[in-house]
Design a protein that fits this description.
The structure is a homodimer. By secondary structure, chain A is an alpha/beta fold. Chain A contains 13 helices and 17 strands. In chain A, helix 6 packs across helix 7 and helix 12 packs antiparallel against helix 13. Chain A is elongated, with a radius of gyration of 24 Å. Chain A starts with a strand and ends with a strand. At the A-B interface, helix 1, helix 5, strand 12 and helix 11 of A face helix 1, helix 5, strand 12 and helix 11 of B. Bound molecules: NADP nicotinamide-adenine-dinucleotide phosphate (2 copies). One NADP nicotinamide-adenine-dinucleotide phosphate binds next to helix 1 of chain A. Chains A, B: Belongs to the homoserine dehydrogenase family. Chains A, B: Pathway: Amino-acid biosynthesis; L-threonine biosynthesis; L-threonine from L-aspartate: step 3/5; Amino-acid biosynthesis; L-methionine biosynthesis via de novo pathway; L-homoserine from L-aspartate: step 3/3. Chains A, B: Its EC number is 1.1.1.3. Chains A, B: GO terms for molecular function: homoserine dehydrogenase activity.
């Protein structure tokens, strides 16, 4: 029995997928049951790293998702439309869909999964988070016996690359970004990456799987890395921390807290050493404790590896299902939840903070800052006056875990007084 | 539709499994389709961390594996017999089997998998390697599109704990072992762990999955950590390496090389920072590049998490299969290969070496050592005379990647001359 794959997109990821499908040697024997049947792209004439016979190639993607011979549609064109409509159309034509499109899944997940459920087909998305890192299926299958409490990920390669270089070179954000763009590590419009939006898409997807409920994309509190300075990286390092853009989803009572922000990570934490374009996802659960998945967060080959693993899983499930009239879906591959997760308020979050003040070098300043925090029940782990230039001083404070609302109130009090000149930066600490 | 689980063993892992099965809240909804039906142990009266109704408990394990109501047998009694016979009997009675027993699988895998194939049932072993770390299913499923080239694992928690403490404290093997035994990190008879036998069982299993062929357990070249000294750890550290007991399986031409030995790991390698009782498995493949799975390598909860994930996968596959007369096996869960992997000779292995000589502090020694290596085409990365006590010196050599056979020949030449007093240690380097 053979399965026919219709591939939408022949760019970075699509070409990688085609390369694997066209060369099964040394890979899963199941690959031999797959046929790369039709391929869609915008241009028929572009040179490609993989040779596709001209008669298989089309610019008419609609004709692929409606082709009665196609069993599995792989969507790797990216973007919201026409990706969403093509996936919906494929599903309506009872084709299984494999996608790498985190933006579309984070926004249209409920619509797409409802459609898939109704049609009795699989909608798979291993490649949407963490590039080549196996994380979606492990969450569905391997950690099915666990009560998950938190997911903490470095899931955007561009920002991790930039922060790693800023750390290694003591360089500033703007310079490293420009260089990263030159080298192809950052896009011409870097917004989705550096402002945390891409990581927010991904943590919404992970949280949905980990906590068994749908997530509204807007529920993810998102801060990017544009304001991170070489100064903060240096101070953090002295205090024993690396600065990473973390995407965090945690159970918080009956609700889930969801956020993406630059974070101080203790050097001893496994995530602190995930550098460059690598990604890692750290999962906490009961009874497993802590596990981490580490690997290449993007790139043609790694992402294609994840896409193909989904295709193989679907093919295996189809094979096991045989020629049955009514499809039966394997619950370890499907996402069946339909309720939305309640979202915790950021104010109720308990976390540690790092804050750097610029102050005038006047007696009493430290005492005043300390008592503003104390009045709001914000207990401090350290408070250090670290550097003095002329009449200016810097005061770096690290708090114990406190309610975010209390911390913000204390900051407002400090602001309102004239004890400080400015708050140079506020970062959370894990 | 409900599935009945027969649990063989209610020790460390068995009790953990029972705890998960008896408390489904917050875990995979599929758990609700599972019933802990019967439990077997040696003693009916031992106090247990989990309450099992007396009528479910039996010492007659045979009656569980032949019980017509049992769908899935979980084998967590350990050891070779009666574990092997019970699993075979369960399979013959068309029950799916989930086991954590690396010793039995590494030795009787072919017999057990043949029986499972013939009976049309699953034989699952996620917990046999890496405790709670998802690695078996990711190898079968997530990396199915990859051509795997190598697996390098820290897959024995006891030895990693001992080496980590030796490193942190500058302590000697014997002292740390005794303390680890006192604290329950090492068994009274530590042979299986410290001599590398447990890691060898596990790498045989991983290699079989990664390279799609059966592995003869005897094919794993195995060296333990008894001879590692605080001195070597210190020298290695100065040279930029941690010493870890690695289990390594690599493609070597058309064959596979399999070995367990203490190894110098560069501080920059992700495995160098896997400390204490944690395990990690580093996988290299094309096109994925490098991925690493990190987590707790043993313990009641983590290991039970892995066992339960297998039970869930089997239940999901049974559910998807429905009430069919002839069972159809999902190839992503089964191990279908039946040929044995050809095994490479250790002599043909290309690897780097670290060697420490004790010599008399005589002029010409270093030159002589250097030329013995040179004559055998062993090229050196560094050669340092590191310490002199009275008339004794130590010479530490790190080679480039060389044929192991050539290196051994050079060592024999050096031995045969009177240039050195002894070879204090020989370790491989990755
Ligand atoms: N690149 C990565 O490392 C990576 C990692 C994880 C996930 N992803 C996700 O994978 C998806 C694809 O990314 P990519 O990097 O492969 O993108 P890409 O290199 O830009 O490739 C997009 C492909 O889709 C085709 N295409 C786009 N819009 C089309 C349309 N309207 N009609 C017909 N063809 C169209 C393009 O055709 P032409 O070639 O003819 O222009 C191109 O072949 C995205 O969702 C992305 O988020 C990518
Ligand atoms: N412990 C870990 O962290 C870990 C991690 C990975 C894999 N594993 C594997 O998991 C398996 C179980 O390990 P474990 O640590 O749970 O062992 P354990 O604590 O010694 O428990 C063994 C259980 O099996 C029962 N049992 C043993 N032989 C029996 C027999 N002949 N008839 C009836 N009952 C028998 C014992 O009964 P009683 O309680 O009545 O004596 C006990 O409940 C082993 O294969 C081990 O390699 C363990």
């Amino acid at each position: 029995m053979g399965f026919k794959v219709g591939l939408l997109g022949l760019g970075t990821v699509g070409a990688g997928v085609a390369q694997i499908l066209l060369d099964a040697t040394g890979r899963s024997p199941l690959l031999q049951s797959l046929e790369l049947y039709r391929v869609g792209a915008r241009s028929l004439d572009k040179p490609r790293p993989v040779e596709i016979p001209r008669e298989q190639l089309t610019t008419d993607l609609q004709s692929i998702v409606t082709d009665p011979n196609v069993d599995i549609v792989v969507e790797v064109i990216g973007g919201l439309e026409p990706a969403r409509s093509l996936m919906l159309e494929a599903i309506r034509h009872r084709k299984h869909v494999v996608t790498a499109n985190k933006a579309a899944i984070a926004r249209f997940g409920p619509e797409l999964f409802d459609a898939a459920k109704q049609a009795g087909v699989y909608l798979m998305l291993e490649a949407a988070v963490g590039g080549g890192i196996p994380i979606i299926q492990p969450l569905k299958q391997s950690l099915g016996g666990d009560r998950l409490n938190g997911i903490t990920g470095i899931i955007n390669g561009t920002t991790n690359y930039i922060l790693s270089r800023m750390t290694a070179e003591g360089a500033d954000f703007g310079d490293v970004l420009a260089d990263a763009q030159r080298l192809g590590y950052a896009e011409a419009d870097p917004t989705a990456d550096v402002d945390g939006l891409d990581a927010a898409d991904k943590i919404a997807i992970l949280a949905s799987l980990a906590f068994g409920g749908r997530i509204k994309r807007e529920a993810v509190h998102t801060e990017g890395i544009r304001n991170i300075t070489a100064t903060d990286i240096t101070y953090a390092d002295k205090l024993g921390f690396a600065i990473k853009l973390l995407a965090i989803a945690r159970r918080q009572g009956p609700a889930v807290s969801l956020r993406v922000h630059p974070t101080l990570v203790p050097h001893s934490h496994p995530l602190a050493r995930v550098d460059g374009a690598f990604n890692a996802i750290f999962v906490e659960g009961q009874p497993i404790g802590q596990v981490m998945f580490f690997g290449p967060g993007a790139g043609s080959g790694p992402t294609a590896s994840a896409v193909v693993s989904d295709v193989l899983n679907v093919a295996a499930a189809m094979q096991a299902m045989g020629e049955r009239a009514t499809p039966v879906i394997n619950p370890m591959l499907a996402c069946s939840h339909s309720d939305f997760c309640p979202i915790a308020s950021l104010d109720d979050l308990e976390t540690r903070f790092y804050v750097r003040f610029l102050t005038s070098d006047r007696p009493g300043t430290i005492g005043h800052i300390g008592s503003c925090f104390g009045n709001r029940l914000v207990s401090l782990e350290s408070l250090v006056q670290t550097e003095v230039n002329g009449d200016e001083a810097q005061v770096v404070v690290v708090t114990h875990a406190v309610r975010e609302g209390d911390f913000r109130a204390a900051l407002a009090d400090i602001h309102a007084s004239d004890a400080i000149r400015s708050v140079a930066s506020v970062l959370r600490v894990i």
